[in-house]
Amino acid sequence: MIFSSLVFIFYFLPAVLALYYLVREDMRNYVLLAASFVFYAWGEPQYCILMFAIVVVNYFAALLIGLGGIWSKLFFALALLADFGALCFCKYMDFLIGNFNALFHGHLDLLHIALPIGISFYIFQSVSYVFDVYRKETAPQRDFFKLLLFISFFPQMIAGPILKYHDMEQQLNRRTVSMPLFAYGVKRFIAGLAKKILIADTLSVVADRLLENGGSYFPGWCAWIGVAAYTFQIYYDFSGYSDMAIGLGQMFGFRILENFNYPYISRSITEFWRRWHISLSTWFKEYVYIPLGGNRVSKARNLCNLLIVFTLTGIWHGAAWNFVIWGLWHGLFIMLEKLTGFHKKQFGGIGAAVQHVYTVGIFFFGWILFREETLGDACRIVKRMFGMPGGESVLYSGSQCCTLIETLTFAVALFCAVPMFRKWIAFPEQTEGETVTFRQGLGTVLCNVWLVALFVLAVARIAAGSQSPFIYFRF
């Protein structure tokens, strides 16, 4: 089941919300737990067993780690081995076998293991739990069902944001729901749905059309438009999912941390990763970068730590060399910024424009590596962009690259990618503690009317069947 489906929007979600608010407060976790397993089992019931087994292992491992003593390191290591072992077997085994065969001329058969949806996300949440217990940042969770809910919570289990246990521990025990918080959640969900259906899915058609067969069906300059379409597609696809997950969490009283903060306005790659997929970058910071020594070590060791983190970031995204190189591509520029102090320099005027153009250029070309399945395909697109010879077979003119609706969608995507858009939406002025207040006035009323219109348009498009899968479902 996916958020952008009529079954979820008009049947599953209303039923879960009604049941959640009808039962006693001490029963609400069980409602969410049952809903989470129904949600996950809807498409892949066989993998519920794997997820349940992961939770069982981490539950008992954390209890044993919490006892302390000389055995805590052993149980911690065993928990990590079980978590990463399951992830590697399901996600990377065929990749390893393929590379072994290529390197040593072997003939091992591929296992063709279907990747369980969301495994990269819930494994990282499991690791965060045992890590927090091992570092004595939290006590072991003795209520098995609360830990199971933390790992399987349906709003974010499939594609994040990645939850860290110490951020969610208190909310699993008690949380307060209110009408303002619920209303905020509904608005956030609709905004995310519109991002996905009306912007990302529209631009995905442009990207697929212009980049098909290495971009050879259109004039070379159209490849630039194709990559730009994918640049916006992946942002609105993934941030749209995150908005829906955060909004759903708010409807049930959970405060889920932000996952995006206008990454395309960044003026360095370092800043980009503080704004893009924030839950992943902070996970790697807390559970890989800092344990390796962070920036408390020598300059050479610190640069090595950064390279390790971004290599792993690339590997996390997929079992293919293009993802590894994509991670190294970002890591190398972050290392250069660290060496030069470029990420700390904030210029004005032309200097700021140069910083921004540099940053856009890095992630723009990085997305080519990210999108294409092979390095050869990525190289073909780059060649087309710069007019290099290589298999031209132009079938269409440049005037056919985008329709009027697609061109307008580009304009909307560009406008909404900057913070100016935030001023047009009635986001809360304060969400600290139990307080949620909204700006009042004509702007708020117009925003609500606009969100209703976006919801109707998005639902109409879903009903027409013109939508694509979430990009991060394959990770």
| CA-CA gap between termini | 16 Å
Flag low-confidence runs: 428-434
Indicate how many domains the architecture comprises: 2
H/E element string?
HHHHHHHHHHHHHHHHHEEH
Helix content: 55-70%
For the structure shown, list the relevant keywords:
475 residues; mainly alpha; 2 domains; two-stranded antiparallel ribbon; 2 strands
List the helices and strands and how they pair.
Elements (H helix, E strand, L loop, with lengths): L5 H17 L5 H14 L5 H20 L5 H33 L14 H16 L9 H9 L1 H4 L7 H9 L5 H33 L10 H30 L17 H7 L2 H12 L9 H19 L3 H20 L9 H22 L3 H11 L18 H13 L11 E3 L6 E2 L3 H22 L12
Antiparallel strand pairs: 1-2
Helix pairs in contact: 1-2, 2-6, 3-4, 3-5, 3-6, 4-5, 6-8, 9-10, 9-17, 9-18, 10-15, 12-13, 13-14, 14-15, 15-16
Structure commentary:
With 475 residues, the protein is an all-alpha fold. The chain folds into 2 domains: 169 residues, no CATH class; 217 residues, no CATH class. It has a two-stranded antiparallel sheet with strand order 1-2. It is globular. About 1% of the residues have low confidence.
